[in-house]
């Protein structure tokens, strides 16, 4: 065992590193005093560090140092683009201090839009709607929050929570753009658990963390750091291409009195800078953290960097990242590094694990090591071509006092270095472990190397990998090695019967016996998904003999191919003659060993005779309507194709294809293929509901003979005529007279054709007058009630004041935009469904004196006038005028 010596003496440098010495404490107090007196944030920062502004320099903070400012942009969307038109933002009030989110607030808020400040008070919750504000226009605004009455913990309610409700909805998180001022010591409750948990969780469109955000927080004398940065920056800056973690972010921490450090950095940077191409972890990020008093270190770095720098091509883990940790007092290491680097630097081609990453850990007092490295490097450096496990990675671990080893290395390396072609497991990887006091070893190596070095061509399992483990005191050893090497350097065998029956069997790991369903290694393949009538041949792994099946496949020729012919294996009478078109080459000529597989590649069993089948598909369409293209796949067995160019018209293969349709090869089919994709298109003019009849011509097959595709009742045409009807109704009214509203119902018919033709969503009261091609001028047609997508009826109300007459049958065309599929549909004409809009009624004629030219009403009116005039002494004049007219 070797261990790098780490300097544990108090040190001082411009930016704080260790905090165990008196000199450092004095400097910290001096800086804090200067900040208090001058109102400045003067903590020394690394060159180029991003600093948050002094709140006293921000106008809307009104000179209050207890002011928090941040910027939003209501136009930001999930990808970080400013394409949105939103105008609403809600300040989240799901603050998680002490593990609860029911904190009170009493704040003065300036929304940054020139409006009046708002004083608000209340109690937050995990699903709170927050404090919402609507802006006049979409854009960028700086919001400030300051307390009505300054008190310790006045800001506890602020923060996002572990839900997607209310202000925690992701669309609201996306709007958060930047943190503009640091925290102060009065903002968060001192000494509490989860002090900064979830505060900035998943605000993906922020750019960088201010390096002085915690510069004014005092932790001197605190003993509880439980969950202090629990998901604080999880998902933060996910869309930034340049974001990185500030090197001195935690330099303010005085953890010298810390006893409980569990969950302290749980998921702190999970998903942070996920899409940055340059982000990496600062080497001295945790250098200022004094863990010398720490007893409980469980889950301290659990998933801390999960998906961090996922797409970075250069990121790697700093070798001395944990060198400053003094864990000599630690008893509980449960889950300490569980998932820490899972998916870290996933796409880096050079990332690797530093050999001495854990060398500084003093675990001599440790009792509980359960889950300590569970999933630590799960998908880390997945695409690295050079990554491998360092030989001495765990050499520094002193586990002599350990009692609990439950899942200690469970899934530690699955998928790590998956694409490395050189990775292998170091022979002495676990030799340093002293497990003599161990009681619980359950699931200790469960899935440890699942898929590790999946593409390595040289990977092997060292013969003495677990020789050093002393399990003599073990009580619980259940599932200790379950799936330890599952899929490690996987080998497969594929069994095929024609084109339809395919069974692939994985042989799990070089040192896992190929055990079949009856518990012996010679009864492969497993046939759990093949019916009794689909018997497959027997392959004896010891003798390497093939025995033909009985029953319906007894007469077929079976081949095992390994690059030459089945003669390479022990020949049997059942092997049959070799037909080149029926051979599938095994990519590695090396034979299997009887009970273990030590080579890469697949072994394929293949059988004939020549056959073809077609995938299940129903081609649904309507006559005189452009068909929505449908694709079917023809699969060959025994025979293979010649080259077929994309776009080749193969309509002639389909002997009963409806008129108007054409069939073309979807993509180029290279010679030697057994799969032919065909796409149907066109405008059918005839109906059909038959199963497809298909014959492949000899010209495209290697056999040189026509081949009839096996009939499949589930592969058929379903071409019919789309129809719609309207209920019988006579829309009656008079011109220039308000129509009494009248209703008709349109019904889509002939819908029993699979998906059928259906309506799309139409809101109630939608104007659909344009559907009615001969509607009288002045009338409107509107949707009576909501039409849901998939409905087949729509109720229509006619209203308005007609200004033209019409007694024709109603004609209707439903536009394709309202239908699925999108095709215009003419409603069947119904002579009993018509307009009846006529002129106003003409008053009846009253008989008068012969040839007077007066109507009855005129005569009555004239008589009344004459009577009145006679009574007034002018009757003679009227009489003369009447005679004259007469």
Question: What would your notes on this structure say?
Answer:
This protein is mainly β. Helices cover 6% and strands 17% of the residues. It contains 4 helices and 31 strands. The strands form 11 sheets. A 5-stranded antiparallel sheet has the order 4-3-6-1-7. The protein has a 4-stranded mixed sheet with strand order 9-8-13-12, with no helix packed on it. A hairpin with a 4-residue loop joins strand 10 (538-540) and strand 11. It starts with 21 loop residues before the first helix and ends with a helix. 42% of the residues are buried. Residues 1-48, 491-537, 539-544, 551-608 and 851-886 have low confidence and may be disordered.
Helix and strand topology:
Layout: H1 22-38, E1 68-73, E2 88-91, E3 104-110, E4 118-123, E5 131-134, E6 140-147, H2 170-175, E7 176-179, E8 491-497, E9 501-507, E10 538-540, E11 545-547, E12 558-561, E13 602-607, E14 611-614, E15 617-622, E16 630-637, E17 661-665, E18 675-682, E19 695-696, E20 707-708, E21 715-720, E22 723-726, E23 730-734, E24 742-749, E25 758-759, E26 779-783, E27 793-800, E28 813-814, E29 819-820, E30 825-826, E31 834-838, H3 856-871, H4 875-885
Parallel strand pairs: 8-13, 15-21, 23-31
Antiparallel strand pairs: 1-6, 1-7, 2-5, 3-4, 3-6, 8-9, 10-11, 12-13, 14-16, 16-18, 17-18, 19-20, 22-24, 24-27, 25-29, 26-27, 28-30
Helix pairs in contact: 3-4
Low-confidence stretches: 1-48, 491-537, 539-544, 551-608, 851-886
Query: What's the rounded overall pLDDT mean?
Result: 78
> Using only CA atoms, what is the Rg?
41 Å
Which structural class best describes the helix and strand composition? mainly beta
Q: Give the biggest sheet.
A: 5 strands, antiparallel
- The number of distinct helices, counting runs of at least 4 residues, comes to 4
**Which range does the strand content fall in?**
15-25%
Q: Widest sheet: strand order?
A: 4-3-6-1-7
How many angstroms separate the termini?
141 Å
Shape: flat
């Amino acid at each position: 065992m070797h261990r790098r010596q780490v300097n544990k003496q108090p040190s001082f440098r411009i930016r704080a590193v260790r905090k165990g010495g008196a000199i450092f404490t004095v400097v910290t107090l001096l800086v804090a005093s200067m900040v208090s007196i001058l109102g400045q944030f003067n903590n020394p920062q690394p060159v180029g560090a991003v600093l948050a502004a002094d709140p006293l320099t921000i106008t809307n903070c009104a000179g209050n140092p207890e002011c928090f400012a941040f910027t939003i942009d209501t136009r930001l969307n999930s990808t970080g683009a400013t394409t949105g038109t939103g105008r609403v933002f809600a300040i989240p009030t799901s603050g998680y201090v002490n593990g609860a989110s029911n904190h009170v607030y009493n704040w003065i808020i300036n929304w940054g839009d020139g409006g009046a400040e708002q004083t608000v008070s209340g109690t937050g919750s995990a699903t709170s709607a927050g404090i919402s504000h609507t802006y006049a226009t979409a854009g960028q605004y700086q919001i400030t929050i300051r307390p009505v009455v300054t008190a310790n913990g006045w800001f506890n309610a602020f923060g996002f929570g572990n839900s997607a409700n209310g202000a925690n909805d992701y669309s609201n998180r996306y709007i958060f753009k930047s943190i503009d001022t640091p925290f102060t010591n009065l903002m968060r409750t001192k000494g509490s658990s989860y002090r900064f948990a979830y505060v900035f969780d998943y605000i993906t469109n922020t750019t960088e963390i201010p390096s002085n955000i915690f510069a004014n927080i005092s932790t001197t004398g605190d003993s509880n750091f439980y969950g202090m940065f629990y998901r604080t920056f999880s998902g933060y800056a996910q869309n930034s291409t340049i974001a990185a973690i500030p090197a001195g972010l935690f330099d303010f921490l005085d953890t010298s009195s810390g006893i409980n450090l569990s969950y302290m950095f749980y998921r702190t940077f999970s998903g942070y800078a996920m899409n940055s191409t340059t982000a990496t972890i600062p080497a001295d990020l945790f250098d200022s953290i004094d863990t010398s008093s720490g007893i409980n270190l469980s889950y301290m770095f659990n998933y801390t960097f999960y998906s961090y720098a996922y797409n970075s091509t250069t990121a790697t883990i700093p070798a001395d990242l944990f060198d400053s940790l003094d864990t000599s007092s630690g008893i509980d290491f449960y889950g300490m590094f569980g998932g820490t680097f899972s998916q870290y630097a996933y796409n880096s081609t050079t990332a690797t694990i530093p050999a001495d990453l854990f060398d500084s850990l003093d675990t001599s007092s440790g009792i509980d090591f359960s889950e300590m490295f569970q999933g630590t490097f799960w998908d880390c450096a997945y695409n690295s071509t050079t990554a491998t496990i360092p030989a001495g990675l765990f050499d520094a671990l002193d586990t002599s006092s350990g009692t609990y080893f439950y899942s200690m290395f469970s899934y530690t390396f699955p998928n790590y270095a998956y694409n490395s072609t050189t990775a292998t497991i170091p022979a002495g990887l676990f030799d340093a472990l002293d497990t003599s006091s161990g009681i619980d070893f359950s699931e200790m190596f469960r899935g440890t190397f699942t898929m590790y070095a999946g593409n390595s061509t040289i990977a092997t399992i060292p013969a003495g990998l677990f020789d050093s483990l002393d399990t003599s005191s073990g009580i619980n050893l259940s599932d200790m090695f379950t799936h330890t090497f599952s899929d490690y350097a996987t080998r497969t065998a594929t069994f095929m019967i024609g084109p339809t029956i395919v069974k692939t069997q994985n042989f799990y790991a070089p040192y896992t016996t190929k055990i079949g369903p009856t518990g012996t290694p010679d009864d492969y393949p497993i046939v759990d998904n093949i019916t009794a009538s689909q018997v497959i041949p027997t392959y004896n792994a010891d003798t390497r003999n093939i025995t033909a099946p009985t029953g319906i496949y007894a007469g077929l020729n079976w081949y095992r191919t390994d690059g030459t012919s089945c003669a390479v294996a022990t020949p049997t009478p059942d092997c049959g003659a070799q037909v080149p078109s029926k051979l599938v080459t095994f990519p590695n000529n090396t034979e299997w060993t009887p009970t273990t597989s030590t080579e890469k590649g697949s072994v394929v069993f293949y059988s004939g005779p020549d056959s073809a089948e077609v995938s299940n598909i129903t081609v649904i369409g309507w006559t005189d309507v452009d068909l929505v293209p449908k694709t079917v796949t023809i699969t060959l067995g025994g025979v293979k194709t010649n080259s077929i160019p994309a776009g080749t018209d193969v309509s002639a293969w389909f002997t009963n294809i409806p008129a108007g349709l054409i069939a073309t090869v979807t993509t180029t089919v290279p010679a030697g293929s057994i799969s032919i994709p065909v796409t149907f298109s066109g405008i059918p003019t005839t109906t059909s509901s038959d199963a497809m009849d298909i014959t492949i011509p000899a010209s495209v097959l290697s056999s040189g003979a026509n081949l009839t595709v096996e009939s499949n009742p589930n592969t058929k045409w379903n071409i019919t005529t789309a129809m719609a009807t309207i209920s019988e109704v006579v829309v009656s009214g008079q011109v220039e007279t308000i129509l009494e509203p009248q209703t008709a119902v349109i019904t889509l018919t002939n819908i029993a054709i699979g998906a059928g033709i259906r309506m799309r969503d139409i809101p109630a009261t939608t104007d659909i007058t344009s559907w009615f091609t001969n509607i009288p001028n002045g009338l409107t047609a509107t949707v009576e009630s909501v039409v849901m997508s998939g409905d087949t009826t729509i109720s229509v109300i006619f209203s308005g004041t007609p200004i033209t007459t019409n007694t024709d049958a109603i004609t209707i065309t439903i536009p394709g935009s309202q239908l699925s599929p999108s095709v215009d549909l003419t409603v069947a004409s119904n002579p009993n469904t018509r307009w009846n809009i006529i002129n106003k009624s003409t008053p009846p004629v009253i008989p008068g004196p012969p040839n007077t030219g007066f109507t009855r009403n005129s005569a009555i009116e004239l008589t009344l006038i004459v009577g009145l005039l006679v009574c007034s002494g002018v009757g003679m004049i009227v009489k003369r005028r009447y005679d004259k007219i007469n």
